[in-house]
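Example record used in the benchmark description.
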Amino acid sequence: RLTIAEQLVGTSLVNCMDEITTGLDSAAAHDIVESLANACHVFDKTTIISLLQPPPEVVNLFDEILLLGPSGLLLYHGPVSKAESYFQEEFGFKKPEAL
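Model output (structure tokens):
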């Protein structure tokens, strides 16, 4: 967490972070990503974060997402708000009721 804070107060306009929520419960992961999103808006920075299987409430904190499939195949890149409709319209996929 200290490293994350150090990156945010630095002079770079873009920060890259890899699996910063690994080992955290979903509430802690949500808090960290939410804090990062708020800081990025305040300091006008871009942050690129790689996450493995983030819960929906964490995904919804992002402005844009990039989803990769097997072998790094690009599945989607764009606003989080349009991802669900993209997969429904392009592939007929529907989000499970439980999500």
